[in-house]
Write a structure and sequence with these properties.
Elements (H helix, E strand, L loop, with lengths): L2 H4 L19 E2 H11 L4 E4 L6 H9 L5 E4 L3 H15 L4 E4 L3 H16 L3 E7 L15 H5 L5 E5 L5 H13 L5 E7 L6 E2 L16 H13 L3 E5 L6 H13 L4 E3 L14 E4 L6 H9 L2 E5 L22 E5 L13 E4 L2 H9 L9 H14 L11 H11 L5 E4 L7 H5 L7 E3 L9 H11 L5 E6 H7 L3 H6 L5 E6 L4 H10 L14 H8 L2 E5 L2 H14 L3 E6 L11 H4 L26
Parallel strand pairs: 2-3, 2-4, 4-5, 5-7, 6-7, 9-10, 9-12, 10-11, 12-13, 13-14, 15-16, 15-17, 17-18, 18-20, 19-20
Antiparallel strand pairs: 1-8
Helix pairs in contact: 2-3, 2-7, 4-5, 4-15, 9-11, 13-20
């Protein structure tokens, strides 16, 4: 399935139809595999476990219709499935075993919940007759996942599998999308049942009230400094094109929410930047001046609203809040107008409206000028200028490249210095989960092998889930991973230096030679210590056709795009670290040119 097709105005047609098993009764494991196929699920990311052996056997029977991706760690598997949902708008399934497997996979559920990503997580479960005996690896998953998922259930009757899986998909993809967790008891999977498969339901999307659209137009006509803030998930290619055309036709400046760069073409003249962690202070200041906020798809959560300080909760700044779930409208900030609508349907309706004669052209140009000024490359100290590296990478990327991003201070470099074009995708965890970037890149590359996939990850996050590169080799895909190595947990060090200057505690790291790490798998490794080395190294990595790691040995002093450690300490020098860190890496033979 091509990525472009997956981004269509509607989800791809799913042709599977309800049926009885031609060979008579089926095991619960096979019924579950068939139920996934019937619902259009085409990828399963899993770490195998004895608690769902019968499902694994069922998946064997549908291998020609559903790809099973064997992963190395449950957190990696669930994050791969989450990235798939972000990119396609349709849920993938993840399978983990009971107890420890579920605990490891829980982080991916939290990512999907806060990022509003459709996801199905199946958890193997003990035999239900052993419930409440503290059986081996027993966990009550309803209690465990209740605050992390849209719905948590358990299947104890194999005859109900088609019903429950169908409902799980509906829940995951409706309203505010999110994860559904389904526990599957062990003996249920072995039971023989005769039951019909259940296909997907055709449900019309909520359409915006025409009166609300007219009210929005009236508010826009009165505005002098409007600002659109785009966010949310399950945008289609047509929906993004429609909202772009409407915003361009009305010359409305656009900011994207935290890690939602995939939603708008950053090269357009009305793109003002991103609101989130590490946002341009100048854009934040202008957002406070706005006299109308068009919040389209965004929840206006903590990162976007700068800790709930950007707007008055009582509605001092008029907000038009467009969201597919009424429960999210006005949850924190009381809007002047709330519009409950599918985002893609709203975009089509907005595009059909007559353009408002803008009174804010200079305002839009001002915000764009701030964006362009923020992209200028400063003369950072050190041999490797990450700003210049990001600008060069922008020109080296394929027009349809998929970029995944982990969590950490390094993650502020790409959004500040790169403009992502309409055909490119940039995804990351809005809940700030470290260890997301590498599995997300592998999941994206497995789902869309024809697309270029590049991952941004810090040295801390890489060693949380970097072993998932084994999954990339196992399935024959080749993402390129950029490891920003500053030998510290950078975000925590930043806060540490602000609060306890010079008192470094618990944030220093000792790292391997990351290039040799990937070479041990048989992949392509590069080390970049100077700006001029990056472009050739990236080109070699792409040309190798292998999974690749490019270690960027960055200046630890440059802790953010706008501050150094010395700045945070008020100019005071830091105490030396407890042990040297660079020396361990210096032994790499310099003669081996890359």
């Amino acid at each position: 399935m091509a990525l472009a097709k997956a981004r269509g105005a509607k989800a791809p047609a799913r042709t599977a139809s309800p049926r009885n098993a031609a060979g008579g009764p089926r095991t619960g494991g096979r019924v579950l595999a068939d139920a996934l196929v019937a619902q259009g699920i085409d990828h399963v990311f899993a770490v195998p476990g004895e608690s769902y052996l019968d499902v694994l056997d069922g998946l064997y029977g549908v291998a020609n219709r559903l790809k099973l991706v064997t992963c190395r760690f449950e957190a990696g598997a669930v994050n791969m499935a989450e990235a798939y949902g972000k990119l396609t708008g349709r849920p993938a399934a993840a399978f983990v075993t009971r107890g420890p497997g579920a605990c490891h996979g829980a982080i991916g559920v939290h990512v999907a919940f806060q990022d509003s990503t459709p996801l199905l997580l199946f958890v193997g479960q003990i035999p239900f007759e052993e419930t409440d005996r503290d059986s081996f690896q027993e966990v009550d998953y309803r209690r465990m996942f209740q605050p992390l998922a849209k719905w948590v259930t358990q299947i104890d009757d194999a005859a109900r599998i088609p019903e429950i899986v169908a409902h799980a998909v509906d829940v995951a993809t409706s309203g505010r999308p999110g994860p559904v967790v389904i526990a599957i008891s062990e003996e249920m999977q072995k039971k023989l049942v005769e039951v019909r498969d259940v296909g997907p339901a055709e449900v019309s999307a909520p359409f915006p009230d025409p009166a609300a659209l007219a009210r929005m137009q009236a508010l826009l006509a009165k505005a002098k400094k409007p600002l659109a803030v785009l966010g949310g998930s399950r945008w289609s290619e047509q929906g993004r094109a429609d909202i772009r055309d409407w915003l361009v036709a009305n010359d409305i400046p656009v900011a994207v929410g935290f890690r939602r760069q995939a939603l708008y073409d950053g090269t357009l003249d009305n793109y003002a930047g991103d609101l989130g962690v590490g946002s341009d202070p100048a854009l934040v200041a202008r957002a406070r001046e706005a006299d109308l906020i068009l919040a389209i798809g965004t929840r206006l959560g903590e990162p976007v609203s700068q800790g709930y300080t950007l707007f008055e909760t009582a509605g001092g700044t008029p907000i038009v809040h467009v969201y597919p779930d009424a429960a999210e409208i006005g949850r924190v900030f009381r809007p002047a107008l709330g519009i409950v609508s599918d985002l893609n349907v709203f975009a089509a309706a907005a595009k059909a409206l007559p353009a408002v004669k803008p009174a804010w052209r200079e305002w839009t140009r001002e915000l764009r000028a701030l964006r362009m000024a923020g992209r200028e490359v400063p003369a950072y100290p050190g041999a490797l200028n990450l700003a210049q590296v990001m600008r060069e990478l922008e020109g080296l990327l394929a027009p349809d490249a998929i970029l995944t991003c982990d969590a950490g201070n390094f993650a502020t470099w790409p959004p500040r210095f790169m403009n992502f074009s309409d055909g490119q995708r940039f995804i990351g965890p809005t809940n700030g989960a470290m260890g997301y970037g590498v599995p997300a890149a592998i999941g994206a590359k497995i789902a869309f092998p024809g697309q270029q996939v590049v991952c941004f990850v810090g040295d801390g996050g890489f060693l949380m889930t970097g072993q998932e590169l084994a999954t990339a080799f196992h399935h024959g895909v080749a993402p390129v991973v950029l490891v920003f190595n500053n030998q510290m947990y950078g975000t925590i060090r930043m806060y540490q230096e602000r609060t306890y200057p010079g008192r470094v505690s618990g944030t220093a790291l000792t790292n391997p030679d990351f290039a040799r790490f990937i070479e041990a798998f048989g992949g392509h490794g590069e080390v970049v210590e100077e700006t001029a080395q990056f472009a050739p190294a990236f080109q070699r990595a792409v040309a190798s056709g292998k999974p690749a790691v490019i270690e960027l040995r960055v200046n630890p002093e440059q802790i953010t795009t706008r501050a150094t450690l010395t700045d945070l300490r008020g100019g005071k020098p830091a105490k030396p670290p407890a042990a040297p860190k660079r020396k361990a890496q210096a032994a790499r033979p310099p003669a081996k040119k890359r």
